Amino acid sequence: MDMPEPLLSVVVPVYNEERILQTNLMSYARALNRVVGEERWKYILVDNGSTDSTPLAIQEIKKLLPRTQMLHCPRPNYGAAVRTGLSAVDTEYAHNIDVEQWDVPFLTWAWRYRARYDLFIASKRSDPTLNQQPLVRYVLSWGLNALLQLLFDFTGTETHGPKLMRLEALKPIIDVSTSDRGQYDTEIVLRAVRASLRIVEVPVEHIEVRPPKAVVIKKAAWNVIALLRLWSKMRREPFKGQMRYHRFAREDVMAEAIPELADIQPVSAKRGTASSGSPQRTAA
Asked: Which is the most buried residue in 4, 141, 248, 262, by most CB within 10 A?
């Protein structure tokens, strides 16, 4: 019997995630089977220059989930990995997550309303009562978003984090977005806003157990430079119509949540607890 064609591709950049890759992705697979439907989705896993046994872990996942695709980037580079994965999508919808950063209520809500919007953004910043970032990361994240508002007239709170995309609308934007590292998905969001696409932002819980490192300051400086480069590239990119940027509250999302999926959360490699974020991301 022929398998039905998948509707959704889940793009996941992975870097040295041998300890948690199978646990987290098989947990999320349970939610995807319930929300999207068995055999109606697939993983696109992009090995992001791993130096541990992550490629072998991906092969084990392929045995359990035969539709899984494995792609490879030679060096750790979050933006290149996401771009490689999104470029390989051949389904109607794409959903990008990090191994330690996904939210089942967001998936459930976004999938239910997928016909209403072109781009769904999960924001850790839109509701500060749900954000448990360490203070230094919180301040740096706020500062980078303030720069987006200043340089690009961005009215949202988040350009990183999980997303659901309708490829018919987003594919032209994906094809021309070339920013590196953590600013790749920022460019996609900014171009989508200027293209007057239907965008919706919803808050997600964010529990971060990774301790802040001094290198975070260096990464923040790199992001400032990267944003200035992006501004130089996009300053002549006109707004093609009024912005269609919508926001909802967490209670709206939770009203659509499936009770038996509520306890499915990612596991952190650091402390074995619920977590968000990925070690190769360069944005705060």
From this structure: 141
Domain 8-261: CATH class, spelled out = alpha beta
- Give the 3-state secondary structure of the chain: CCCCCCCEEEEEEECCCCCCHHHHHHHHHHHHHHHCCCCCEEEEEEEECCCCCHHHHHHHHHHHCCCCEEEEECCCCHHHHHHHHHHCCCCCEEEECECCECCHHHHHHHHHCCCCCCEEEEECCCCHHHEECCHHHHHHHHHHHHHHHHHHCCCCCCCCCCEEEEHHHHHHHHHHCCCCHHHHHHHHHHHHHHCCCEEEEEECCEECCCCCCCHHHHHHHHHHHHHHHHHHHHCCCCCCCCCEEEECCHHHHHCCCCHHHCCCCCECCCCCCECCCCCCCCCC
How far, in Å, CA of 262 to CA of 280, rounded? 28
pTM, 2 dp: 0.90
Query: Per-residue pLDDT tens for 148-166?
Result: 999 999 999 999 889 999 9
Residue 195 backbone phi and psi in degrees, to 5:
-85, 0
